[in-house]
Structures are given as structure tokens and as C-alpha cells.
């Protein structure tokens, strides 16, 4: 570890794991949970809204959202997420992580409650289901509210207070209190530290140090989300084919929501959760770089198989093979780029620009999600088998592009954030980068 680093930063890197770290993990996890809940419940809500508000008694068929309305409902969520990531990511570097996180959580609470109070009536249909979609949306306010309470009890991050606010003394006090150790302020050393890293996002210095990193984190997240959101947003249509749910004409609206939720739980339990926990176990030994490479490659393999063998796999006698391939795709998404594309932007960039660069990367992901939702989903809307096969092959190709773009980022395991970003006085060169991949 470099001697040029501030004492408070060295303390953060070398501190033993204690309650502060557990609390920080829970707060970050609850933030991800709230975001994921609000975003992915939309696919089930949109199905339910169609059955409630577009039901025609004369047709004796379940109602369905018109294509343009469905796109609007899903599009609002994705556009709002993309815009919010860019705006609040930038504000996070300007106003502080704690303050901006608090503001976003309060907005999420207010909007979740208000969305559940939207006007509407479904008196031709099932009144219980009208209450259900409102309750589902309003429940999203609860984790956001709990997260706000716990985040406000914690101080601003030590790195932000010291490096961006320029108050090494306050950072030492805050981190010393939560880590239960005494930390030297290093106020005199701070000026030298800051002057060595005084460059903007659009400077030649940033491009020299981190230009390829930003291109790499943005492109890989973009390409991942094309495939990932194509699968997630169409789960409600794929599950009947896999035999995990009944056709919507056979069940009530409430029963359909239950069956879809149950099927999503099964996929999460067998594919998504294990993938995440494999990442937790192996990320420090294998490293972010190789986990991302393997994840992209295996996703591409399984999607290619489904693309070539779709007609064979959708037959009743092969439905569990289809389910296994589908689950393995999610496993390697999470034991792969769906984990590492979150991690790498949080580690590669300097403190002053970390939130902004992470926001740019995440927003690129949501741009990919829009292509998945409005491009791939719209292309396969008529459920034409040949179109679905071509779409799966296309998604396999995007994953291989993600595999290639991973080589634009570098391994970060085993190093401090200042060492990774070069803030401690070191500048990573190509030979160092190659060594980190060994």
C-alpha cells in the first residue's frame, strides 16, 4: 500500500470487518433490492393492468394492454431509471453520497405510494385484483423508508469527506468513531493528495488514465442488459411454454399473478440466487475480470443452444431441459456480468468522479434494457418461432461482444481504491494491466 495515501484511507482499507461494514452492506443491498423490486414488478403489473382495464366481456378472453400502452408503462420505468442514474450519479459527486442517497430514497417512497393511489376502476372485472396491483407498487416504499432511516444514522463516506470536501479532520473523526479506532487527520497531506488528482471527466488526463475503463464498463453493462432484460421482461410469456404456469385463459387474474410470481421465484431460487452467492464466494479469489469473461461466454453458449433448438425445447417432453438452459443462463448472468458490471465501475474510477462514472455505466445498461424491451420484445411480439430463434441468436452475439469488451477493463482484486484509480500517485500502464490479468 502506498505511503502517499492518507491515514484515513489506509484505515478504511486495513480495518477489520465489524458492525459498520455489515450495516453498510445491508444499506447498499436494500438500495439494490428497492430498485430491483420497483423495476421488475412492472412486468407482472402490466399483465394485470391489461386484464383489468382492457377486458371485453363479449370476447370472453382475458384483456391485454395494447402494444403502445405496454411499451409506455415499461418505458416510463426504464427512462426514469436511466435519467435518474445520470442526474443523481452526477449529484452524488457534487453534493455527497449520503445526501443524494437520502433524497432518492425519499422520492422513491413518495412515488411508490402515489403510484398505488392512481385513479382507475375495474368494476367489470375482478375488484380484488384492482387492489392487488396498487398494494404491490406501494410495498416498494417500505424498503426505501427503512434504508433511509439506517443511512441517515451513518456518516458521509470517509473518502468523500476527505478527498472531495477537503476535510480530513472530519473524515478521521467520523471513520474513527464507526471503526472504533484513532485515525490521524493528515490535513496538511491532503492538499498534496488533491493536487495530484485535480482533473475533470472530460480532460486528457482522465482519458489517459481511465478512458478505456469507462468505455469498457459502459459497453459491457449495455450489452449485458440487452440480453438480461429481454429475458426478464418476457418471462410472463415464456413461463407457459416452459410449463411453469397455465395459459391466461384458464385462470383468473389473481391466479395468473400468483403463478407468474411463483415461477419467477423458482427461476430465482435455482438460477439467480446461486449465481450471486457463487460470486460472493469466488470474487476475491477468481477476480472480477475472469468471472465476467466466463459469465458472458456461458450466457452466449446457452442462448445459442436455445436459439438453434427452440422448436425442439418447447415440446412438452423437453420442457425441463428448456427450463434448465433458461436457469443456467441466469446463473451465469449473476455468476458473471450482472454482478461484476456493478462492482467494476465502483472500483476503477477516482473518488471525485466515481459516482458520475458509475452512473454513466449504469445508464448505458438501461439503454441496453430499452433495446431489449422495445427491440427484442417487440420483434417477438407475434410469437413467431423463427423470430424467437433469431432473437436468441442475436442475444448470444451481444453476449460475445460483451466478452470482447471486457478486455477494456482491468482486474481490481486485492488492491485499494486509490491504488486502482492511481490517486495514490501511481499510474497504471499496459504492462501492469497485463500482469493483473495473469
From TrEMBL:
This is Major facilitator superfamily (MFS) profile domain-containing protein. It comes from Nyssa sinensis. The lineage of its organism: Eukaryota, Viridiplantae, Streptophyta, Embryophyta, Tracheophyta. The keyword Transmembrane applies. One of its GO terms (cellular component) is membrane. GO terms for molecular function: transmembrane transporter activity. It is found in: Membrane. Residues 419-438 are annotated as: Disordered. It catalyses: phosphate(in) + H(+)(in) = phosphate(out) + H(+)(out). Belongs to the major facilitator superfamily. Phosphate:H(+) symporter (TC 2.A.1.9) family.
Amino acid at each position: 500500500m502506498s505511503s502517499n495515501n492518507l491515514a484515513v484511507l489506509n484505515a478504511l482499507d486495513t480495518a477489520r470487518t465489524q458492525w459498520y461494514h455489515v450495516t453498510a452492506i445491508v444499506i447498499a443491498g436494500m438500495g439494490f433490492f428497492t430498485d430491483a423490486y420497483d423495476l421488475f414488478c412492472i412486468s407482472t403489473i402490466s399483465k394485470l393492468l391489461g386484464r383489468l382495464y382492457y377486458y371485453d366481456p363479449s370476447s370472453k378472453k382475458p384483456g391485454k394492454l395494447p402494444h403502445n400502452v405496454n411499451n409506455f408503462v415499461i418505458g416510463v420505468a426504464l427512462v426514469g431509471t436511466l435519467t435518474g442514474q445520470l442526474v443523481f450519479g452526477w449529484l452524488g459527486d457534487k453534493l455527497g453520497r449520503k445526501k443524494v442517497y437520502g433524497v432518492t430514497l425519499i422520492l422513491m417512497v413518495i412515488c411508490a405510494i402515489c403510484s398505488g393511489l392512481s385513479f382507475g376502476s375495474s368494476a367489470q372485472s375482478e375488484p380484488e385484483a384492482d387492489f392487488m396491483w396498487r398494494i404491490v407498487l406501494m410495498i416498494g416504499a417500505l424498503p426505501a423508508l427503512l434504508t433511509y432511516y439506517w443511512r441517515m444514522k451513518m456518516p458521509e463516506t470517509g473518502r468523500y469527506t476527505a478527498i472531495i470536501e477537503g476535510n480530513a479532520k472530519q473524515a478521521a473523526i467520523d471513520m474513527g468513531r464507526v471503526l472504533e479506532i484513532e485515525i490521524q487527520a493528515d490535513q496538511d497531506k491532503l492538499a498534496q493528495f488533491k493536487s495530484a488528482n485535480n482533473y475533470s471527466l472530460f480532460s486528457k488526463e482522465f482519458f489517459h488514465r481511465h478512458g478505456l475503463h469507462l468505455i469498457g464498463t459502459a459497453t459491457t453493462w449495455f450489452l449485458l442488459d440487452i440480453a438480461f432484460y429481454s429475458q426478464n421482461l418476457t418471462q410472463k410469456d415464456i413461463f407457459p411454454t416452459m410449463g411453469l404456469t397455465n395459459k391466461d385463459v384458464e385462470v383468473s387474474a389473481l391466479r395468473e399473478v400468483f403463478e407468474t410470481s411463483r415461477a419467477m421465484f423458482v427461476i430465482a431460487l435455482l438460477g439467480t440466487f446461486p449465481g450471486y452467492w457463487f460470486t460472493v464466494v469466488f470474487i476475491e479469489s477468481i477476480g472480477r475480470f475472469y468471472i465476467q469473461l466466463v459469465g458472458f461466454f456461458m450466457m452466449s453458449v446457452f442462448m445459442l443452444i436455445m436459439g438453434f433448438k427452440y422448436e425442439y425445447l418447447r415440446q412438452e417432453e423437453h420442457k425441463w431441459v428448456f427450463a434448465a438452459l433458461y436457469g443456467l443462463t441466469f446463473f451465469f448472468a449473476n455468476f458473471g456480468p450482472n454482478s461484476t458490471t456493478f462492482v467494476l465501475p465502483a472500483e476503477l474510477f477516482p473518488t471525485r468522479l466515481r459516482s458520475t462514472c458509475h452512473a454513466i455505466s449504469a445508464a448505458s445498461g438501461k439503454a441496453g434494457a430499452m433495446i431489449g424491451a422495445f427491440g427484442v420484445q417487440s420483434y417477438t411480439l407475434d410469437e413467431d418461432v423463427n423470430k424467437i430463434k433469431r432473437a436468441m441468436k442475436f442475444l448470444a452475439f451481444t453476449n460475445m461482444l460483451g466478452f470482447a469488451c471486457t478486455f477494456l477493463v482491468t482486474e481490481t482484486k486485492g488492491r485499494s481504491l486509490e491504488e486502482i484509480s492511481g490517486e495514490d500517485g501511481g499510474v497504471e500502464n499496459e504492462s501492469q494491466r497485463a500482469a493483473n490479468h495473469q
